[in-house]
Specification:
By secondary structure, this protein is an alpha/beta fold. Helices cover 29% and strands 18% of the residues. The strands form 5 sheets. It has an 8-stranded mixed beta sheet with strand order 9-12-8-19-11-18-16-17, with helices on both faces. It has a 7-stranded antiparallel beta sheet with strand order 4-3-2-1-5-22-21, with helices on both faces. It has a 3-stranded mixed beta sheet with strand order 7-13-10. A hairpin with a 4-residue loop joins strand 14 and strand 15. Helix 13 runs parallel beside helix 15. The radius of gyration is 22 Å and the shape is globular. The structure holds zinc ion (ZN).
Length: 525
């Protein structure tokens, strides 16, 4: 197979960038990003680039913006932009990139382009308003580098956590893995040096009590796509008693935690649970192309979720592997074998489960259902009978309905895993999905999105009451987060950039859409 030379890539990429930043596409193309060799770097390291129809900027890791052409399309990298929440509500979905904010732009762009065979040549970002149902888009969308789509909630609560309530601060989602690992007893040195590599994230010590927990019992909760601002708003309005209870017993970050780019599900589940960015863990997007194998990888699909560990790059460790490494395996037997101990690590409804002693996805793998979680069908509880559902009408949305079933089963698994303090895992990870369904269906602040948060809170409250019944709630440490935020699209902003690329007569693939891969001349797909 002929491979494009560096000069060919550079020339063709320039044509692609010029076409995509044409003013007549500005209503659907927010930014175009890529990396190129830094002309000022003696080592020839890559530097992050961003462009819009307005101008082009070179983004340095030290925060410098070197404008190469026109005006800087990234005027702000403020991770606390659009706070307090009223500001976001007053100006949802900024129309222009210079009115928006893109936190950690340089490091997040560099990470996306650091994989040796899976990184695209150019990544295109939809404007917040772009509505593209014909290409898989929804009323509510995410994936952008921008602050709202990248802002996930983050709270810590319970044993070992400082009781500070709301704080005006932010973290990053890569901080979740080292924080959970540290709470579960993994020594600092292991987090720095484990696997021969340091993590990209850091332990959020500022919010911890400082003492080493004896026999830690840590529960990480992820509500997929839960919108940070609205989650805090509903909790403060008294509508989410479970979340309010956790905040009352801990700390919640107003600025949440910044996702990696793209702010899509599987990329960030992998970043959350490995503590490194996509350029290191290899899960570049929900859909990406691997030049090494010539395959399109569809990672975020109920049919393939249970295979996600196959896409993690060698040398990357999951938080489950970090915590399990504290205790050697007995005779090579898994710890949850009938003769063995209870699971030390458990992973409920989570795709990135490698190394967990107990895992929903392992049950699916072992069941041999070829269609994965999507084929569970009648093994799942009846959505219409869910006591956590706030409005039966939402079941008309098939994704919401399936998520209701999955989340009810997830709660059931949590109750079983937590039969007693002694038998409970040291680290439990509990992912819920209905919040993603609600926000995709209606966008942030819609009735269905808010009900999805109420449904999730009802399950959380039910689990907290289960712990109360056992008298062990105070012995547990909680961390609750999400994988990305959401913005609502504008039904009048439609169209595709594909015709503009096709007119260039340059072979390419567009995965997502948004990941542009330049192809050798005989290889167009
Ligand atoms: Zn998600």
């Amino acid at each position: 197979m002929s491979i494009l030379s560096a000069a060919q890539v550079s020339t063709r990429r320039e044509s692609v960038v010029r076409a995509l930043t044409s003013p007549d596409l500005a209503f659907i193309v927010d930014l175009v990003v890529w990396v190129e060799v830094d002309p000022d770097d003696p080592c020839g390291d890559p530097v992050a680039m961003a462009a819009s129809h307005r101008g082009r900027v070179r983004l340095h890791l030290d925060g410098r913006h070197e404008v190469c052409e026109g005006l800087d399309p990234i005027a702000s990298e403020d991770p606390m932009a659009f706070l307090p929440y009223d500001r976001e509500c007053a100006s949802p979905g900024p129309r222009n990139s210079w009115e928006n904010a893109y936190p950690y732009a340089a490091s997040r762009i560099l990470s996306l382009f650091a994989d040796p065979t899976r990184s695209p040549d150019v990544a295109v970002m939809h404007t917040p308003g772009h509505f593209f149902p014909e290409q898989g888009g929804h009323v509510g969308e995410h994936g952008s580098l921008d602050v709202i789509q990248s802002r996930a909630p983050l709270l810590l609560s319970g044993k070992g956590v400082a009781k500070r309530g709301f704080v005006s601060a932010h973290a990053r989602l890569v901080d979740v893995c080292p924080t959970l690992a540290a709470l579960a007893g993994v020594p600092d040195a292991d987090l720095r040096d484990g696997g021969g590599d340091s993590l990209d994230g850091r332990v959020l010590t500022a919010y911890l009590g400082g003492e080493q927990l004896v026999q830690p019992k840590v529960i990480g909760v992820l509500w997929d796509g839960a919108h940070c601002g609205d989650l805090w708003h509903l909790a403060e309005s008294g509508e989410l008693p479970g979340i309010a209870r956790l905040i009352g017993n801990g700390v919640a970050l107003r600025g949440g935690a910044v996702a990696h780019f793209p702010s899509v599900t599987l990329t960030n589940h992998a970043s959350i649970l490995t503590g490194v960015g996509p350029g290191r863990h290899g899960v570049l997007g929900n859909v990406f192309y691997d030049r090494g194998t010539g395959e399109q990888v569809v990672a975020n699909d109920s049919a393939t979720w249970h295979r996600s560990a196959e896409w993690l790059r060698p040398g990357v460790r999951t938080v489950f592997e970090m915590v399990n490494s504290l205790v050697p395996q007995k005779d090579g037997r898994p710890r949850d074998s009938p003769q063995g101990d209870p699971p030390r690590t458990a992973c409920v409804n989570e795709a990135v489960d490698r190394g967990a002693d107990y895992s929903t996805m392992a049950i699916i793998r072992d069941s041999g259902i070829s269609s994965g979680a999507g084929g569970l069908g009648d093994r799942l509880p009846d959505a219409a009978k869910s006591i956590h559902l706030h409005d039966r009408a939402h079941l008309d949305d098939s994704y919401y309905s399936w998520c209701t079933q999955v989340d009810d089963l997830g709660l059931e698994q949590m109750r079983q895993l937590w039969g007693s303090l002694e038998s409970a895992p040291a680290l439990t990870w509990w992912a819920g999905v209905v919040s993603d369904a609600g926000h995709h269906a209606g966008g942030p602040r819609s009735d269905i999105a808010r009900d999805s948060l109420r449904d999730s809170d009802s399950r959380l409250t039910s689990f907290l009451e289960h712990l109360d019944g056992l008298g062990i709630t105070d012995e547990v440490t909680f961390l609750l987060t999400a994988d990305h935020g959401f913005e609502g699209s504008d039904p009048t902003v439609t169209g595709s950039w594909r015709p503009a690329l096709e007119r260039l007569d340059i072979p390419f693939r567009d995965e997502g859409p948004g990941f542009i891969y330049l192809l050798p001349d005989h290889d167009q797909t």
